[in-house]
Amino acid sequence: MAVDSPLSSPLGPPACEKDAKALQFIEEMTRNAESVQQRVLAEILSRNAETEYLRRFQLNGATDRETFKSKLPVITYEDLQPEIHRIANGDRSAILSAQPLSEFLTSSGTSAGERKLMPTIKEELDRRQLLYSLLMPVMNLYVAGLDKGKGLYFLFVKSETRTPGGLLARPVLTSYYKSDHFKTRPYDPYNVYTSPNEAILCPDSFQSMYTQMLCGLLDRHQVLRLGAVFASGLLRAIRFLQLNWRQLAHDMETGSLNLKITDPLLRECIVKTLKPNPELAQFVHHECSKDDWEGIIVRIWPNTKYLDVIVTGAMAQYIPTLDYYSGGLPLACTMYASSECYFGLNLNPMCKPSEVSYTIMPNMAYFEFFPHEPNLDSTGFDFTRELPPKLVDLVDVEVGKEYELLITTYAGLCRYRVGDILRVTGFHNSAPQFHFVRRKNVLLSIDSDKTDEAELQTAVENASHLLREHNASVVEYTSHADTKTIPGHYVVYWELLVKDSTNSPDNDTLEQCCLAMEESLNSVYRQGRVADNSIGPLEIRGVKNGTFEELMDYAISRGASINQYKVPRCVNFTPILELLDSRVVSAHFSPALPHWSPERSQ
Ligand code: AMP
């Protein structure tokens, strides 16, 4: 019920007093975007004035924008490697941040095959929590009655390590779920989850998923929204249900918990609530044993009003599958965030996925934007030249234009290129709203893995060494992220040159080539294969000789210039995929898991 509050918001009537405050905060921040940005920059620069990094560029205590822009270079992660290395190895001096770094957050973006290590400080948790606290007040503007039930969210912690110098290194969500901010959050009727903390915090992914699914089934009538962070995660949960519903139904029937749940705290917590419920067991059996799983989400959880998952960016590939399983429930993309910094939220979360725009909250960090020329990814601008380029401030971006995002954070990243390309769609007050266009240089992605062209090239090169004993080589290749099955997998199309047809590469060799490629890919990919089970075995599809020439002919027939034609290293356009698939002569899958361990190799 909307309250008639003196704090009522231009965004719409708030659902309660607490929401009114949150909406008012959004209004204040977005109305004063320019002054908030100036304040944030001045705060960051004055707090960190004595850090080695700011002293190196002779900021001499200046906190104004002009000095900052004229003296500090635009950087990438690679530029910060020496500092990150020193911190990882135990140097506790104020290198990037005056406040001690509390941990490293391990990004799904990689550098030299390993997750990037993002410095963070304790107070960043407050900033992240602040952004989370704005999500439900906005959602309540569009969906009524979310305080009358629960959210079924599949949330997971992942493995963590320590750097040689003893700092924790773990993903940002693992850090958040393990924090008191999350674990001891006060009761909020709009944020009640079916998953107990013990299930979310269980490090074993099977036990965690099993118990979260079980609790979600037990509470099925109370579930009003269903989600995971990314679309791929929610589909993994559906797949899990397909594989495990019999055992889950058995547990409900008998009131006894699967013996594979061995985590003592988790077991104790679930056993307390699990009572025999033959009726529910029968229902689950009835629905899940059908061949047709279309609309399974609304059949099992009939009161679900929307799915809360990110389907923007690389995740857009999952929209048709989610629609299939959910019977077309609305898909809400609520926020835009990263390990480096949480950026902002969607003020119209029930809009169509293609219309999602995120409003960057100006209090989260200091933001700059580099005008982005489409198609000039790596060559577009030489950031290494002496004078820093003219970057645009948050309030000065122009509607319709694309930009690359740069951030300066409280934890000490200065003018750091995040690697995301955004397009301005409009403004809320004076804060711009952005459509997420894509991440730069990402060729293939199934889950949080991001494989770029160079990584794929190296993988193909390494694998093709195995062809030498067959006197064969890879003439051309391209790739595709196949998400028709769950989990999805990488498909690499190879056209081979076989010099001796009596000794052409056999299935065994090509399977080993698949595995060799997987061994070459970055650690986020291998973690997805080994620990998270979120990526299926890589597949090589051998295509007939001449296929890539046909591909070129096709491109030229559609207007490509013959002189400039380059083989695309990833294809998504259906007619080209159909052409490739119609020329496939053999298919081979990776026969084993690649190596992966939580320990970093460097
Ligand atoms: P990580 O560093 O692993 O936390 O990943 C952060 C990256 O995930 C961002 O820089 C984006 O590329 C991507 N990302 C995060 N939120 C969204 C979103 N809402 N839509 C599309 N991509 C997103």
Please give the count of helices.
20
Strand order of the largest sheet: 9-10-11-16-15-14-12-13
**Amino- and carboxy-terminal Cα gap:** 55 Å
Q: Label the structural class.
A: alpha+beta
Can you tell me the overall shape?
Answer: globular
How many β-strand runs? 20
Major β-sheet, in short?
8 strands, antiparallel
Would you write up a description of this structure?
GO terms for molecular function: acid-amino acid ligase activity. The protein has helices at residues 17-31, 33-47, 52-56, 65-71, 77-88, 124-139, 172-177, 180-183, 197-200, 205-218, 231-254, 264-273, 278-288, 296-300, 319-326, 453-464, 507-520, 523-530, 547-557, 574-582; strands at residues 103-111, 114-120, 150-154, 161-162, 168-170, 223-230, 306-310, 331-332, 335-337, 342-345, 358-360, 366-371, 392-393, 402-408, 416-428, 431-439, 472-482, 489-498, 539-543, 584-589. It has a domain at 443-589. Helix 10 crosses helix 11 (231-254). It is of the alpha+beta class and 602 residues long. It starts with 16 loop residues before the first helix and ends in a 13-residue tail after the last strand. The radius of gyration is 25 Å and the shape is globular. The longest helix has 24 residues, at 231-254. Helices cover 35% and strands 20% of the residues. It has 20 helices and 20 strands. The structure holds adenosine monophosphate. Adenosine monophosphate binds at residues 107-109, 172, 310, 312-313, 333, 336-339, 418, 420, 436, 439, 448.
